[in-house]
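Methods: example folding runs. The two proteins below were folded one after another, and each record is reproduced exactly as written to the output file, sequence line first and structure-token line second.
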Amino acid sequence: MDSDIIRIPFVNRRFALYIALPKSESALSTLEGEITGENFSDETFFHGYQDTFVNLTIPKFKLSSNMVLNNVLIGMGMSEAFSSAANISGITREPAKMSYIIQKALIEVQQSGTVAAAATAIIMERTSANSLPLNPYNFFANRYFVFFLREDRLQLILFQGKFADPSTKEINFP
């Protein structure tokens, strides 16, 4: 994979934001093919990280999506839930069936570096200059990148997206 990948753990260490930054613009389509293809290796992509100090610069962004999950759930064998034969007596005493199941997802990365998406990151400042590394790794996401919000213990990708603004090929930071 011709990309730099960074893992940013949340405070509880169960959740992490992964950012894959292709080393060149042409590598983006290759990266997208690798992560969406049948040969995608969860083991290769999400493991083997080592803790290190990083000078991290990522743009502020907010993405949200709304998705009707009916067809997905019917495809998984839940068709009865959407029919009059549905037994949802644990939810209501009245005869009912599900009409729609809608998923709304939101991820926001703010300038402070806080990531919000059903979890909160805490940003801490060092109090001693002695703890700063001499040569931190520089990770500047100043072009297209792919990101994942993942629950690492269960190995579940909760949110996946691509930061790509067709009107610009580079993001300028102050």
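Second run, written to the same file directly after the first:
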Amino acid sequence: MMMDTTRPPLPPFSIASATEKVPLAEDGWNSRNPEKVAQAYTPNSQRRNRSEFINGREAIVSFLTRKWQRELEYRLIKKLWAFSDNRIAVRFAYQWHDDSGNWFRSYGNERELEPMASCESASPPSTTHQSRARIAGFVGRSAAGRRAIPASAISTSKARTR
């Protein structure tokens, strides 16, 4: 049975705490431990992966177990996209290969609502025809110095002109 836990840093988010949280989530996913990853999501979490809809932590564990049995050498990169006091949005890319050695890469975004993530959307994977050496270069955190834009700095009501 899974218990409810929260994973710091918790809201309200600042640029520092939002930036700290994203690589922690990336590390969790790259552990390929379904139970560990599921603890980062709300008990009633709703996720979509391509055409599959997953509801709740137990379903997340089942989904991830199946996923990582077929998606070999899975590797995820998450990047902070935007944040507000109680929300974080990330964009992600991940790659893996099947048992025939065909490599795939997928992209998507995830919105995290306080205090644990609850909604994800991923695109269909695309086959990559790059060499194994090139694929091995797919690493996270290389752009750790990039900064996200606070949601409060984004105006949707007026266009800014210079």
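Comment on the second run: Residues 129-135, 142-146, 153-162 have pLDDT under 50 and may be disordered.
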